[in-house]
Amino acid sequence: MLEIDIDRKRYADRGGSPHVALSGLNLQVGDGEFACVVGPSGCGKSTLLNVVGGLDGDVEGRVRLDGEAPGNGVGFMFQEPRLMPWLSVLDNVLLVAGRSAAAKARAVDLLVAMELGDVLQAYPGRLSGGMQRRVALARAFVIEPKLLLMDEPFVSLDVPTANRLRAMLVELWQRCRSTVLFVTHDLREALALGDRVCFLSGAPGRVVLDLAVTLPRPRAADGTAVLELQARLLAQHPGLLAGLASGNGCAPGRDDG
Ligand SMILES: Nc1ncnc2c1ncn2[C@@H]1O[C@H](COP(=O)(O)OP(=O)(O)OP(=O)(O)O)[C@@H](O)[C@H]1O
User: Ligand 1: which residue has its CA nearest to atom 12?
Assistant: First the structure.
């Protein structure tokens, strides 16, 4: 179980008063659950992931993964693939997986499953944006992380490529059963991926709506079921997205969708 209790996260003075990025943000994510976090620009989504992953320890509050501070079993995937340009595809994954024969076998299996078997020795600069994200996905899953933190990993890809990557992500998650915290601006993406979607208020971010998504899988972000759920949500919570932007308009609660 991932337990997030952030009383307050402040950034130091940037020429005016200190900026409070998160305040009173409480969230629990069950083992193996896929939780998406959506919210307006600047509400603190990336800050939340940095705090949860221990990249930023300057926070009032605490984060616990099975009762302890999250440590080695945490994987990250960011907006940019962040591959090492001087290492081959395989070596980029081995950098995280280790050099044992078992690690190498696992890395190759994963890359083949991601349809990258033909480019194991290629350098990232030769790959398309979508292929680079697939390498980053393989790198994220090769350690079978207990917790995977994902910060808009499929942003600025064309629709078919993003759909394909989402399908691969769900397949890997179903295989590994990692707990996933996935940040996105895109409500349809969140509804397509998540067991839950947590909506954050405008800054300072806190959870204002916690929605269980019970649509059957597989789901497509541009499929009818997701589009209908999105329309229903916006009708049930008029001003949900506008309200999020201004920090009002939704009462805390848990809905079924
Ligand atoms: N290192 C930092 N120092 C000072 N302020 C920061 C720092 N990092 C983020 N902020 C500020 O904290 C707020 C939240 O930033 P954050 O990147 O977490 O938001 P976000 O919801 O992820 O935004 P976006 O959706 O636009 O990526 C913003 O106002 C940002 O300018």
Answer: 21
From the alpha carbon of 183, which atom of ligand 1 is closest?
A: 22
> Could you state, in order of their start, the residue ranges of all structural domains in the chain?
2-73+145-256, 81-144
Find out whether the beta carbon of 11 lies less than 6 Å from any atom of ligand 1. Answer: yes
Per-residue pLDDT reduced to its tens digit, 167-203? 999 999 999 999 999 999 899 999 999 999 999 988 8
Would you state the structure tokens that stand for residue 55, as one six-digit string?
Answer: 């990249």
198 C-alpha to ligand 1 centroid (Å): 18
Amino acid in the structure at residue 42: G
Residues 134/92, Cβ–Cβ less than 8 Å: no
Mutate to test the pocket of ligand 1, among 6, 38, 46, 198 (most ligand atoms within 8 A of CB): 46
CB 202 within 8 A of CB 247: yes
Q: For tokens 């020429």, what's the residue?
A: 15
Class for domain 2-73+145-256, per CATH? Answer: alpha beta
The yes/no answer to whether this complex scores an ipTM above 0.95 is yes
In 10 A of CB 197, how many CB atoms? 26
